[in-house]
Amino acid sequence: MDFMLSIVFELGSNLIESFLFFYLISHCLKLKYNKNNKYLLLIIEFIIITTCNLTITSTLLRIIILLFTDCILTFIFTNGNYSERFFWGTCYSLITLISERFILFSYSCLFKQNVADLFQSSLNRYLSVLLYLIFCFL
């Protein structure tokens, strides 16, 4: 049961992350609007985030890959000049990097525990992911 809860939680947090990316992009740039395009953007972002989270253990490598793919998705799905699309395409990845580092640093300082403990399925993991998503949203 704990394994299923962990999978559902991970997929849910990936879906929220995908929505936050979509929200930022759609409110800062003009989407090439088509009803199917916005759902396609959400689905592609969800698949990329989930794949990266499952296969890549290095946080920095995952952020770099997401930065690159977010930028490409922004160029494909939005209108505007190149500098705006590049800025907003990379902005979300930078926000996630800062959020993740802030949560990990805070955890290690407050609880005097190893950060590796957060990557195991536990209450601390769930709380850290929720704090991370809240921090990204702000």
Walkthrough of the structure:
- By secondary structure, this protein is mostly helical.
- Helix content is 81%, strand content 3%.
- It has helices at 2-28, 35-55, 59-77, 82-111, 123-137, and strands at 30-31, 78-79.
- A two-stranded antiparallel ribbon has the order 1-2.
- The mean pLDDT is 80.
Poorly predicted ranges (pLDDT <50, ≥5 residues)?
none
How many strands appear in the DSSP assignment? Answer: 2
Please estimate the helix content.
Answer: over 70%
| Strand residue percentage | under 5%
- Mass-distribution shape: globular
Radius of gyration: 16 Å
What structural category do the secondary elements indicate? Answer: mainly alpha
Tell me the series of helices and strands, N- to C-terminal.
Answer: HEHHEHH
Rounded mean pLDDT is 80
Query: Treating each run of at least 4 consecutive H or I residues as one helix, how many helices?
Result: 5
Quaternary structure classification: single chain
Distance between the termini: 32 Å
Largest sheet: 2 strands, antiparallel
With strands numbered from the N-terminus, the spatial order across the biggest sheet is 1-2
Task: Give me the secondary-structure topology.
Elements: H1 2-28, E1 30-31, H2 35-55, H3 59-77, E2 78-79, H4 82-111, H5 123-137
Antiparallel strand pairs: 1-2
